[in-house]
Amino acid sequence: MLSRSPCVYRTLGRSLSAASQASNVVTRQHLSSHFQRKCQPRLQSSSHANHVRFFKISAVHRDEVVTVNTPAFAESVTEGDVRWEKAVGDSVTEDEVVCEIETDKTSVQVPAPAAGVLEELLVPDGGKVEGGTPLFKLRKGAAAAKPAPSPSPAVEAAAPEAVTPPPPPQPSTPPTAAPAVSAVKSSSAAAAPPAPSTAGVRGENRVKMNRMRLRIAQRLKEAQNTCAMLTTFNEVDMSNIQEMRKLYKDAFLEKHNIKLGFMSAFIKAAAHALTDQPAVNAVIDDTTKEIIYRGYIDISVAVSTPKGLVVPVIRNVETMNFADIEKAINALGEKARKNELAVEDMDGGTFTISNGGVFGSLFGTPIINPPQSAILGMHGIFDRPVAVSGKVEVRPMMFMALTYDHRLVDGREAVAFLRKIKAVVEDPRMLLLDM
């Protein structure tokens, strides 16, 4: 009877439906809570990590401070003096020169490794450093590479016109920004040392000798104290070599892409003469009391620079022709002008040529470049009357001087050496005939 009652069926159905809905709600809540416990921390930590990581990378890139050390020197150089090109607070770009280190033989430029601002100079100006010594600290960053630009005078001058204020009623009105800037500039300019006066004012200016000049003085004095120096002279008629250069300079330039000069003729002639007189290319080893005869010819070419005399070396000249020599001279000259000569470029010469003629020298006695045994001095080319086949003619003439170590080279060998150079320069065809 109970099973047939519609009321009972309705009541039982409602109870089962309510229980089912409650179970579904609990199940959904449980699954949602479980999913949140498993996934939400990962999402939050991932988002937090990404945010922190991005901020740290940005900060390091912008504020990283690096310490730049002294570059390594060559084996024969132990220390140098620092000369700063920049000051603390200056902005530099990548590869911009911050300082130069003057050594005994050359100057080494130290560039900035990146754009930024100089934070600290770790060595005073003129201080001595060795390879690896910390030099300066640089705060990297593109934003710091450029200081805030100051208003230009044009903008400052245009500012009053844009505002167009009424004219001041009294002359005691405070000055505008433009006159203030001018006053600062004029006061700083007045603080600079005055230019030398021509009104009879007597004065002195003391300048410390740089390391290169000190080393040059030391080596030249050592040469005077060690070598028994003697100088012999001769003169060269430059007519034929000038005519050869006039005839072939354009074709030479077109083929080799370099100009034909007189220096290559003298270097090649010197190599020919050194082969003929090997004692001039030799050297005395004072330690072992032996004579070292070289089987190669490396000629040092003296070059005058604002910082002193440098002598880059052209190696194996005996194997070169005129074009090879001219290219080597040009390459070394370019490096000297850019102050890029390394110590290796100046080590190991066996003979030196000095050309004082480029300064208009007529006559002179060069000093040996130790540990070499001789040096050839070239001088200016001047028209002079000379006797040619019993007649007086005006020819372009040059005096040559050979200073040699008389302990090793005798007068006969020195005179024969100069005469060989004279013969080859006056008639370059002798090189072809090996005479």
TrEMBL record:
Pathway: Amino-acid degradation; L-lysine degradation via saccharopine pathway; glutaryl-CoA from L-lysine: step 6/6. One of its GO terms (molecular function) is dihydrolipoyllysine-residue succinyltransferase activity. Residues 163-177 have a biased composition (Pro residues). Residues 144-206 are annotated as: Disordered. Residues 144-162, 178-192 have a biased composition (Low complexity). Belongs to the 2-oxoacid dehydrogenase family. Coiled coil: none annotated. It is an enzyme of class 2 (transferase). Its EC number is 2.3.1.61. The gene is LOC106525276. Its main location: mitochondrion. GO terms for biological process: L-lysine catabolic process to acetyl-CoA via saccharopine; tricarboxylic acid cycle. Keywords: Acyltransferase, Lipoyl, Mitochondrion, Nucleus, Transferase, Transit peptide, Tricarboxylic acid cycle. This is Dihydrolipoyllysine-residue succinyltransferase component of 2-oxoglutarate dehydrogenase complex, mitochondrial. GO terms for cellular component: mitochondrial matrix; nucleus; oxoglutarate dehydrogenase complex. Residues 65-139 form the Lipoyl-binding domain. It is found in: Mitochondrion matrix; Nucleus. PANTHER family: DIHYDROLIPOYLLYSINE-RESIDUE SUCCINYLTRANSFERASE COMPONENT OF 2-OXOGLUTARATE DEHYDROGENASE COMPLEX, MITOCHONDRIAL (PTHR43416:SF5), DIHYDROLIPOYLLYSINE-RESIDUE SUCCINYLTRANSFERASE COMPONENT OF 2-OXOGLUTARATE DEHYDROGENASE COMPLEX, MITOCHONDRIAL-RELATED (PTHR43416). Its cofactor is (R)-lipoate. It comes from Austrofundulus limnaeus. Dihydrolipoamide succinyltransferase (E2) component of the 2-oxoglutarate dehydrogenase complex. The 2-oxoglutarate dehydrogenase complex catalyzes the overall conversion of 2-oxoglutarate to succinyl-CoA and CO(2). The 2-oxoglutarate dehydrogenase complex is mainly active in the mitochondrion. A fraction of the 2-oxoglutarate dehydrogenase complex also localizes in the nucleus and is required for lysine succinylation of histones: associates with KAT2A on chromatin and provides succinyl-CoA to histone succinyltransferase KAT2A.
